[in-house]
């Protein structure tokens, strides 16, 4: 993990958000630097997924500011690309996503090769078939999978851990500058969780300039992956700081309860 605090690659400041008149985020600020892993933790309904989706431009905000590489991230109408800022478009091009359920994010009709290559096709960065194939194999290997065994498989032929590592390979194939992993281990078994943790750490080693945001309720995973932690409770930031400090000497009562429940 990083020992010094890098400048922010992606930041959100004073974010407010409501759904149907119910406020879910209250003046929340967060940031991740190049080469850094930020973990956003909290219970169900704390607002952690909403915050990180806003940071990645996947959800609109009521107020506040998001910047990427120093540029404002302003979505078009309805959160769409048309009418958006250059910062928003750059973030869409240069970010990767890993969702909770890998099988829901993989087309059951597609081979692994096609699924992993999809970001290259969508961004127009994979016009050469050989270069695309090479990038797909490299991404699979980085995620801890043997390309020769995986390329022609379909999701139904994968275990949960394999499917999530395919999803990770797809997220990194276009060499994004920032990745959001939203509860990437909650839908898979304990053995596979170790494999996913290894894959995420391998990606950080292979891409030392990449920012990684992890949403998780598993503090054991967070302890071994994150440089910094942001703790949310009912839409409020209750604590933030370096991982060792937040987990080793938590200041907020809510954080202490989370740590005690995790038996760290």
TrEMBL record:
It comes from the Bacteria. One of its GO terms (molecular function) is ATP hydrolysis activity. Signal peptide: none annotated. SMART domains: AAA. Pfam families: ABC_tran. One of its GO terms (biological process) is transmembrane transport. Keywords: ATP-binding, Nucleotide-binding, Transport. Residues 10-259 form the ABC transporter domain. CDD domains: ABC_NikE_OppD_transporters. The keyword ATP-binding applies. Belongs to the ABC transporter superfamily. This is Peptide ABC transporter ATPase. It comes from Bifidobacterium moraviense.
């Amino acid at each position: 993990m990083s020992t010094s605090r890098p400048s922010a690659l992606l930041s959100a400041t004073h974010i407010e958000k409501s759904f149907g008149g119910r406020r879910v985020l209250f003046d929340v600020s967060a940031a991740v630097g190049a080469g850094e892993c930020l973990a956003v933790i909290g219970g169900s309904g704390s607002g952690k997924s909403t915050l990180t989706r806003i940071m990645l431009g996947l959800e609109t905000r009521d107020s506040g500011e998001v910047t990427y590489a120093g540029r404002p991230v302003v979505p078009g109408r309805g959160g769409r690309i048309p009418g958006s800022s250059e910062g928003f478009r750059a973030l869409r091009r240069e970010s990767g996503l890993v969702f909770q359920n890998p099988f829901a994010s993989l087309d059951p009709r597609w081979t692994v090769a096609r699924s992993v290559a999809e970001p290259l096709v969508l961004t127009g960065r994979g016009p050469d078939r050989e270069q695309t194939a090479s990038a797909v194999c490299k991404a699979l290997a980085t995620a801890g999978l043997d390309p020769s065994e995986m390329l022609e498989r379909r999701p139904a032929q994968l275990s949960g851990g394999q499917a999530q590592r395919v999803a990770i390979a797809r997220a990194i194939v276009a060499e994004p500058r920032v990745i959001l992993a939203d509860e990437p281990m909650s839908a898979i078994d304990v053995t596979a969780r170790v494999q996913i943790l290894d894959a995420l750490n391998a990606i950080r080693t292979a891409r030392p300039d990449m920012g990684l945001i992890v949403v998780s309720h598993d503090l054991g995973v967070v302890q071994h992956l994150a440089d910094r932690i942001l703790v949310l409770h009912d839409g409020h930031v209750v604590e933030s700081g370096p991982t060792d400090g937040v987990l080793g000497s938590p200041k907020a009562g809510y954080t202490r309860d989370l740590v005690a429940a995790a038996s760290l």
